[in-house]
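Look over this entry.
=====
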Amino acid sequence: MPLNINGLDGRMLHLPAPKGATKEILFVYGHHSSLERWWGLMQVLNRYAAVTMPDLPGFGGMDSFYKIGKKPTIDNLADYLAAFIKLRYKRKKIAVAGMSFGFVVVTRMLQRYPELTKKVTMLISIVGFAHHEDFTFGRLRYYTYLNGTRLFAHQPFTWLFRYGALNSRVLHAVYARTHNAKHKFKQAKNKEEFEMLMQVEIGLWQDNDVKTYMFTTTEFLQLDNLQPRVDLPVWHVTAQVDRYFDHRVVEQHLNIIFNDVKLIETKLDNHAPSVIADEKMAAPLVPAGLRAALRKHA
């Protein structure tokens, strides 16, 4: 469905509630995302309630904040999400799920708009995080990412990155060999699946606004979401193997923010499933403990 908020055009996906269900789930995706990328997970969540997933400014092909003279700060993303909830749900209560960086935005929104906690029946973190110390990067890698994203968030470096490094031919030739992408392409079972993965990855890189991507990466590499507290418990899904975060540190930080942290481990051997994950492949992100909670609370 088309989506327009404050002059920014994007899209949202809405799946009506299954027969007999009346509850609503708002899903907020993370970095390197689009509506299509999370279709499989939406099908899983739709078993329990109606599901709505809006684009975030600068992601999934939506206009960026730069179009209206704003920067894509976490605060501005949180304000956007609060406006979406107030416009779409008004008097309704909802469950809210955030995926990775999406949960960072959800947390900041609840910190800036504490009155919205009264609308939330259930808060879900799917491999979310809360502080820059949650990352497992070594010092050299951390500062390489931090300084690199700072550089590419400014012109002319943004333009050079978009039309040089993110050129389709360049990505097709080198992306599968890069440090962060090797694990993604190892999942491909054959050449056909490899090509499918590559085309989706190219689409994600080119649809997401480069300046927004770099600016938000810089922001979350320096993130401190530990204050103020949020008057809600959180169901936190953590991957058994996560190449980005130390789940023990994440849990400690979430306990500082929320009333209670209900930790649910999934056997997923990565931070997230493949970008071409169907319903079956995305199902591990909703493990048994979370499924039981959704049936009760969502």
